[in-house]
Give the backbone structure.
Amino acid sequence: MVTLLPIDIEGHTVMGVEVKLPKTTLLAVYTSRGYIMCGALDVGLLNDKLADRKIIAGRAVGVRTLEQLLEAPLESVTLEAEKWGIHPGLQGKDAILRML
């Protein structure tokens, strides 16, 4: 099942996506500029093979809900995200705010 829902962060509406798959759930919160995602995100692939796309993204591990994704510190981020002041250790919701 796929669930798409609006999330309010400090007066800004962003979108959350939850994809329930066998034995795992994919989680993402996105803006028009970038996104944060659960541990399934391959930051290395985005930085290496897809570098020309300049994707702004961050990865948090060990999260099981969209709420946890927003509260968790990012484990890794893309090179393009670093240009926006998004770095490992930054809380997910703070990264989303920098993507607005």
